[in-house]
Design a protein that fits this description.
The protein has a single domain (4-145), classed as START domain (Alpha-D-Glucose-1,6-Bisphosphate, Chain A, domain 4), CATH 3.30.530.20. Helix content is 26%, strand content 43%. The protein has helices at residues 16-24, 29-32, 121-145, and strands at residues 4-12, 36-41, 52-57, 64-74, 78-84, 88-99, 102-113. The longest helix is centred in the last third of the chain and has 25 residues, at 121-145. The mean pLDDT is 89.
Length: 147
Amino acid sequence: MDVVQVEVSTVIDRPIEDVFRFVEDEHNLPRWDDDLIKATKTSDGPIGTGTRFHLDIKPFMGTTEGEGEVVDHQPNDVIELRFDMGKMKTHVHHLFDVQGKSTRFTRRVEVQPEGFLKMMQPLMKGMIQKRNVAYLAKLKSLIESES
């Protein structure tokens, strides 16, 4: 099946530990990802590999719900997530790299549309790219403005 892939990076003027801690906190996700209304942790324990979430999402085509899971969690290195939102399967990699006293944060998104959504695939890459550039700009601003 065809997969739409997008990768966006930014350098955040904060130590890697601060950036990682902010990104892994599900309460912060809707603050910088405008498509996400709410992420609710549905599994017990601290966030790590295997943590599950219920998602309330407002993507470009209306409100929907889905389930997500952390499939890899390496502190200050990677948070890998998989989301199932019906006809849309999404795989997101959040990658963290030290860059001097700052952090290079990279978000790689892979979307696998199914059914009628496959027809929109040619438009998806540009739209997903544009939205993720905006998300990372907002993330950078939020983290850098916090003391």
